[in-house]
Design brief:
Layout lengths: L12 E6 L2 E14 L10 H10 L7 E11 L4 E4 L11 H4 L6 H7 L9 E3 L5 H4 L15 E4 L1 H7 L11 H19 L3 E3 L5 E3 L2 E5 L8 E7 L2 E5 L9 H4 L11 H18 L2 E3 L8 E7 L2 E6 L18
Parallel strand pairs: 4-5, 5-6, 6-7, 11-12
Antiparallel strand pairs: 1-2, 2-3, 3-4, 8-9, 9-10, 10-11, 12-13, 13-14
């Protein structure tokens, strides 16, 4: 009889090959969002609940993963976003103790933050960029260059916008971004990225402003395979795939975000590209399938390690 307690918690990282690249996804944890029905002002709340229920998901307890992709191109180690960080006043202090675990997960996966060469930010929202510094403001990634669009940086580091933010949480968006981004800027370790720029070997930025002023997604290409790492282009594997035109309340520019969402969905579908969904069920790797006016999420199966055994099985016996 087993003496191990039951668990539904896999390791906080997953590893897979993509073309010639080695990819690791580490989990920063889980965002507890509560009911989703209030997050889509243009949607019928009952339809939001029904869509979740139809997919065997709780309408009262919506959870979003934070899947941080790290790609080893062979010449550079590139990380996409950083999670919420560990600041008790910003980040984990707001999102709770189930978040802010990116660095321990990296170390468990055998990756030292000091080995990261490039951090490619999709945008500067709390759950994507507030893991750049520790609570004392020291860079967590001492050797990394930060890739970000200038429009994104300029908007969120402008403390003059704090006064016009509608509530304390959104005021903190500016304070937290300033705290996390400025140390890299002051150290001269910012690389401005524009649409089409190559960030590292096989990795290019695609400008997708809408959810935030300078939101960027990244295409990762090795051989004839392409994966799109899309940040907050889509938050949920059901709601915004099945209903791409629903406006999300935290979009900076709702119509712009919707247009970019549809544009990238079509690019992914037509190119049969893989997707790394930051907020999708861990580890967030999969494909899209067109489904009437929306899309269905098809998670990819990852190859499992085989247990070590001394037994030798001879084929045919």
């Amino acid at each position: 009889m087993s003496t191990h307690p039951p668990t539904d918690r896999p390791a906080p990282y997953a590893r897979f090959r993509f073309g010639g690249f080695e990819c690791t996804v580490v989990s920063d944890g889980m965002l507890e969002m509560g009911p989703a029905r209030g997050n889509f002002p243009a949607a019928d709340p009952a339809e939001v609940d029904a869509l979740l229920t139809d997919h065997h998901l709780s309408p009262e307890d919506v959870r979003l993963n934070e899947n941080i992709l790290i790609v080893d191109t062979g010449s550079e180690l590139v990380q996409f976003d950083t999670g919420v960080g560990t600041d008790p006043a910003l980040g984990r202090g707001f999102f709770g103790p189930r978040t802010g675990h990116a660095v321990p997960a990296m170390r468990e996966a055998g990756i030292d933050p000091a080995d990261i060469d490039v951090i490619a930010l999709t945008h500067a929202h709390p759950d994507h960029a507030w893991g750049l510094v520790d609570p004392d403001g020291r860079p967590v990634y001492p050797n990394a260059v930060l890739a970000i669009s200038k429009a994104e940086f300029d908007h969120w580091t402008d403390l003059g916008k704090v006064g016009s933010a509608p509530d304390e949480h959104r005021k903190d968006h500016f304070r937290g971004a300033h705290k996390n981004l400025m140390p890299y800027a002051e150290a001269g370790r910012i690389r401005w990225v524009e649409d089409g720029d190559e960030v590292a070997t096989g990795i290019r930025a695609v400008a997708t402003p809408g959810h935030s002023p300078g939101h960027v997604v990244y295409t990762i290409t090795s051989g004839d395979e392409t994966m799109v790492c899309w940040g907050d282009l889509c938050h949920h594997q059901v709601l915004l795939l099945q209903r791409p035109d629903w406006a999300f309340q935290f979009d900076f520019d709702g119509p712009g975000a919707t247009a970019q969402r549809r544009r990238i969905y079509e690019l992914v579908d037509e190119g049969r590209h893989a997707v790394l969904g930051y907020h999708f069920p861990f580890p967030g790797l999969g494909h899209l399938r067109r489904d009437r006016d929306g899309y269905t999420w098809l998670p990819s199966e990852l190859e499992r390690a085989l247990p070590v055994t001394a037994d030798v099985v001879t084929p045919g016996r």
